[in-house]
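Journal club prep — side note

Before the paper discussion, L.F. wants everyone to see what a predicted structure for a comparable chain looks like in token form. Sequence:
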Amino acid sequence: QVQLVESGGGLVQAGGSLRLSCAASGSIFSINAMGWYRQAPGKQRELVASITSGGNTIYIDSVKGRFTISRDNAKNTVYLQMNSLKFEDAAVYYCSAEVRVGVLDYYGTDYWGKGTLVTVSS
């Protein structure tokens, strides 16, 4: 079994910064892509950023230049540095990981954390 645990959410003023972390643990051979999603009240969950095992990244347009995703493969951990936060960034942030449990498990299985709340105030 694999567990993903997010941390780092909280209340921040508009224009401020937060750093989210997500650590994966359990029966892990390796991890392919890792990502951060968010879901605001009344909205669908959306991909914010993702990073491959090789470090290639993608971002949604609304966070480009403000958010940075990174990962530490040795620690099975992904980070999301969020700067210049806006009201519209407020949401529950979820991390995901495509986990391989063995050498023949080429595509892996997607696992999700339970989410961490980011609140942006004026």
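L.F.'s comment for the group: The CA atoms of residues 50 and 56 lie 8 Å apart. Keep this in mind when we get to the figures.
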